[in-house]
Amino acid sequence: MKPHTDWLAHSILCTGVALFVLPLWLLLAGATQDGGAIARGELSFVPDLRNLGIFWSVLTDRAPGGSPVWRMMLVSAALALAIAFGKIVISFLSAYAVSFFRFPFRMLCFWTIFITLMLPVEVRIVPTYAVMANFGLINSFTGLAMPLIASATATLLFRQVFLMIPDELVEAARMDGAGPLRFLRDILLPLSAANMAALFVIVFVYGWNQYLWPLLVATDPKLDTIVIGIVKMIGGDTVTDWNRVMAAAVLALLPPVLVVVLMQKWFVKGLTEGDK
Amino acid sequence: MATLELYDVRKSFGATAVLHGVNLALNDGEMLVIVGASGCGKSTLLRLIAGLEVPTAGRIVLDGRDVARLDPAERDIAMVFQNYALYPHMSVFDNMAYALKIRGLSRDDIARRVGGTAEMLGLGPLLDRKPRQLSGGQRQRVAMGRAIVREPKLFLFDEPLSNLDAKLRVTMRAEIKRLQRRMGVTSLYVTHDQVEAMTLGDRLLVMHQGVPVQLATPMEVFERPATTYVAGFIGAPAMNLLPGVLCQGGMAVDLGRGMVIPFADGKRDGVDGRKLTIGIRPEHIVLDPAGMMLQIDLIEPLGSETVLIGRMDDGELLSVKVPGRAPAGEAIRVSFPAAMLHVFDAETGLRLG
Amino acid sequence: MERRTIFAGWVLPVCLVAPQLLLTVFFFLWPAAQAMWFSLVRQDAFGIRTEFVGFENFADLFADPLYLDSALRTVVFCTAVAGLAMGTALLLAVFADREIRGRAIYRTLLIWPYAVAPAIAAVLWVLLLNPQIGVVAHALKSVGVLWDYKLNDTQAMIVVILASAWKQVSYNFIFFLAGLQSIPKTVIEAARMDGARGWRRFRTITIPLLAPTIFFLVVVNIVYAAFDTFATIQALTHGGPGKATETLMLKVYRDGLINLDLGSSSAQSVILMVAVVVLTGLQFRFIGRRNAE
To answer: Could you tell me the pLDDT band of residue C46, with boundaries at 50, 70 and 90?
Structure first.
């Protein structure tokens, strides 16, 4: 390649990075500034380092009429983890069943799961709400998590992974005397670990960032997620405490961003291999 | 240590019949090589014996017990796969130990048996490695070790050398033969490579389109091929096959071009004019100043010998193998020694006499 | 595609597939069926009497200028978001694919916004463009632009498009980068030997080879813009001013859960489902054809 520095590439990439990092920086800096000053239009890019304690106080203080931020973070984390683990386990097992067995109505099962790909939660929001109301699951954690656990994407991803496992490997295991459950545990599980990690990142972010469904199904403030909490803070009739909103937004961003950045390699691989 | 018998084993996938009835008996400790072009059903036959497919009809008897409908795990058969099929996430030791663990052997027994087998195959220093850290030859050895360590009744080899480079293939071929002799385990070896087939097998089974066409020792297959298919398949360059007709009251063949050759081994049945196919191997054709004229089309020097591809007067090609260098000139004269002719029926392709 | 080797038995697989199947039936098929049923009936204001009305709800929708406006608005919004998010991402991916120093850092810095919730993306854009507190809004005002997206329809549309596209760039970036990296180096080298360079090589070699990725992303981006931006729009404008940023998704929500017009909102849900089914069907046909080649 060219020995000299590629200035064009650097300038375009730096502009791109600025486009994404500057708003984030503004959020961080704004959180430490005076709420009144921000409301008067004096938001600055320079953080006030004396005010770093704001993050702690936002985390622990109880917002008027709502739950404290730490509680909302906990709800978000529980929701994201429940969805991630639930989805991974259920999809792994169902993908295993449709990939490695022949049983009656197998293709019917597969297509039933498959068509859910075409029904994102947003599209069926009103009827799903009605069904949940029939079950009495409104305002319950179960009602919050369950409909988000089922989806075809993860099943299809695992099926894709399983299809790439050579037939000979399965045959070797059978000749070695491994039955279906032993094969699942000893061979399939370790071989799918990387894909599971990728899926974990994708689903964790998906679960953490949910807005519409929690808004509908959990009106009890005890079940407010952090995302819901922040939108409530800026949408209310009262004067918005901008520095507190920003501090809360920083806290809300941290877990999913950390998960994505720390597991970047697996996540990118899983995302690009799975959805195709 | 076991015997294997197949009785009229058939297999169809949907409406497509892949095996049209195979009968076979393997003696204890024998190495039988199944050879044929791809799609001849040889791999399917191996998979039926392994238990990875269920036969449509027929019996597979291992050591006096019909195993045709048993799960592979219940048959006590080990298999070496073409792509080795090592468990990528397990170390060499765990790959070899897996079947023993499933059978519930004690830790000490497993360590002892895996250690012994690894020693025998020179895998000792590699036991902690993962398959991806091994060379092709080493992976092949681990696949062998995984089969050997189980001490099975029967070994199955599914083209185990086809993923190796040419030089390594020769080394491993010799090693497989030595190991099989030493352990004396009854073995079935599938390949499409005739050199492997000739060198490894105590006996060969040549398959063609789902039917076994010849079962004999390697030399017998070479010297007395049962059909024109076998004749063309075994031997390189391939045997020349020429049309001819029976003449002189069944005592000779008329190859046209004025060539009438009397049979060295006696009369063939049928009336004069019966259509025949005459086979002659390139290395058996001799240079003869009084023989048929052959225009040289292509010269392939192999070093110690030379293959000449020539055109006869009617344009048909004929290969001739001569020792040493190619003779000078653009044409040669050749004749066919009567004792070296193979006589087949032109319609059925079956050997006559 | 099917596996050659399979395990015997049917009790175990049925048990394994059952949880997924139950969830699917209860939370996907049943609601979808209910939506279809409700789209064909009309309830009185108290929800006591239910009357079968056939396709009247649909007919009403297609005769309703408010619905048609919203549909048109959604099309404009989706096109703008998909175009902006994909264009930016492709530009960045092309340069991030070059052999430059700090490649890994650039990539990480461009990938993290994937983790930002659409609602939080809205907060970030409030900081930039809110007429009272936004830093960019102040800059605009200082050069004489009358900036207030809470009053100006066009400005409101621009704000929700920017915020929605911003959030989707990193997703597209990941796929474009993977797509670019999967183009065999030898093909690019062959094009260089043939004398194709710069823009020409990009247009005649890279773009055609990226076509599957582009097509896949078009579908994903349209679905994203149509549905996942609900939180962004809700947090920024609530669909306002007036109905200037009310997409079909916001309308379903408002009619069904605020105005409680079950028949109309169900009909709207059914129309959205059909739209997603058509889009997904197109995508799979295209991908299926590509795999068959």
So the answer is: low
CB contact under 8 A, A172 and B83: no
- Please state, rounded to an integer, the average pLDDT across all residues of chain B: 92
C185 touches A at CB < 8 Å: no
How far is the C-alpha of B75 from the C-alpha of B56, rounded, in Å? 18
Q: What is the C-alpha separation between C175 and C96, in angstroms, rounded?
A: 12
Using the 8-state DSSP alphabet, how is residue B248 labeled? Answer: T
**ipTM field:** 0.86
The CATH number of whichever domain residue A202 belongs to comes to 1.10.3720.10
| Closest to C185 (Cα-Cα) out of A1, A13, A270 | A1
Which residues numbered 202-261 in A keep a CB inside 8 Å of some CB on C? 205, 208-209, 211-212, 216, 227, 230-231, 234-235, 242, 245-246, 249, 252-253, 256-257, 259-261
Confidence grade of residue A275 (pLDDT, cut at 50, 70, 90):
very low
Listed in sequence order, the residues at least 6 apart from B260 whose beta carbon sits closer than 8 Å to its beta carbon are B247, B248, B252, B253, B254
Angle, in degrees to the nearest 10, between helices C103-111 and C153-181: 140
Residues A160, A226: one domain? yes
Q: In this structure, what token pair is assigned to residue A169?
A: 């490997």
**A112, A211, A264 ranked by CB distance to C230: nearest:** A211
Give per-residue pLDDT as tens, B225-255: 999 999 999 988 999 999 999 999 899 999 9
* DSSP string for residues in C185-225: HHHHHHHHHTT--HHHHIIIIIHHHHHHHHHHHHHHHHHII
Nearest to A171 among B52, B87, B99 (CB): B52
Distance from CA of B205 to the nearest CA of A (A): 24
Q: How far from each other are the two terminal CA atoms of chain C, in whole angstroms?
A: 14
Same domain, A133 and A198: yes
Q: How many independent structural domains does chain A possess?
A: 2
* Domain end call among A52, A70, A95: A52
* A113 and A40, same domain (yes or no): no
Residue type, C139: A
Question: B71: which 2 tokens?
Answer: 């799960």
Of A8, A246, A272, the CB nearest to C178: A272
- Among B60, B7, B129, B54, CA closest to A174: B54
Q: Are both A137 and A231 inside the same structural domain?
A: yes
Domains defined along chain C, listed by start: 66-292 (1.10.3720.10)
pLDDT at A276: 40
Taken in order of first residue, the domains within chain B and their CATH numbers are 4-232 (3.40.50.300), 239-345 (2.40.50.140)
Collect all residues of chain A within an 8 Å Cβ-Cβ radius of residue C225: none
Distance between CA atoms of residues C127 and C102, nearest Å:
29
Residue A193's domain spans which residues?
57-274
Q: Identify the CA nearest to A72 among candidates A262, A182, A232, A263.
A: A232
Inform me whether the C-beta atom of residue A171 falls under 8 Å from chain C C-beta atoms: yes
Do residues A13 and A144 share a domain?
no
Closest B-chain CA to A173: B99
